[in-house]
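Preliminary data (for renewal application), nicotinamide-adenine-dinucleotide complex.
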Amino acid sequence: MEKNIAVIRGDGIGPEIVEEALKVLNKIAAIYGHTFNYTDVDMGGCAIDKWGDPLPEEMLKRCLASDSVLLGAVGGNKWNDVPGDMRPEKGLLRLRAGMGVYSNNRPAKIWPQLASASPLKESVVEKGIDFIIVRELIGGIYFGEHETHEEKGVLVANDILSYNEEEIERIGRIGFETARKRNKKLCSVEKSNVLDSSRLWKKVMHRLAEEYPDVELSDMLVDNCAMQIVKDPSQFDTVVTENMFGDILSDEASMITGSIGMIPSSSLGKTTCGLYEPIHGSAPDIAGMDIANPIGTILSAAMMLRFSFDMGKEASAIETAVSRVLDKNYRTADIMPSLEEEAKNCIKVGCKKMGDLICEELN
Ligand code: NAD
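Predicted structure:
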């Protein structure tokens, strides 16, 4: 099969981790007889520096013309003071909106080899952590009007949180469909005790539930959900929620599985052209040091193969290779056990070496 992939290396550790994912994709292409053509796309801080815009129109066009998009991460302190509309993250929001990818899917699954890296008590981890957060991605407060003005010498800032029934219904369906393929338990997370947008969210979810009688729907307030994720994550199977709540909860969920560097994500809309990226940011604190964990990006590439290219066998091969490397006790710094006793049995490797080891296991 021949596929065209738009590649956004981005800022900070982005170029390093994407390089490793491309290594793995090239290995897959060689083994399974595929051709992957890569088109470079500038987005984020590097695009601001080069083009004066975090996502020039031409770059968005390149992404829309591809079969899928692989992204490292964007942002960094260097661009902290640029105007809101020109920030690196704005490029990402425009890309998501331009591609119409309204559903972001982030698995929170503990790798048995990394159980001791979870900050949760062993008794909690032992019950299992394996759920997925389906987050609405192109609506809500991140896409509402933002403005700051002065009233009687005092600065006032407003951010509008708005959802319509159709936006809720389309992400709700993804939630129900995802739960249907898993353990048929869907938890809808909102703040209906305070917000109108959440009351509408809840109403639409319950209307949809009538079409999915095989899925057990429950409601949870977002503050309680944040608490339950650390108290007993084994209770969750599929969580569906709006943009900002999903952003925060999925970072929390990633942390309990050990490291933010391990978690991939997929973002999809009406077509199979998806956006695949690790859930972490550009980690400027460790950029250029060859210590970043590339596994979240490599697993994102695996998700791309499975969900956009219908290459399930190839995706599984990557996941198995990652598991084997962990079985052999190779660890990047972020997933080294904190206990000295356990760390003694592990071999600390850098970003490039981790990519090489995963490629070797693909053989
Ligand atoms: P971050 O996710 O970049 O980093 C948080 C912590 O996790 C840091 O200590 C970092 O070193 C560590 N970390 C992250 N990824 C890692 C990896 N692969 N391996 C090892 N350690 C890793 O979040 P932040 O520090 O809040 O944000 C840094 C920049 O990234 C900001 O400019 C932010 O806006 C941007 N950001 C971008 C995205 C994106 O591109 N999708 C997402 C979140 C944040």
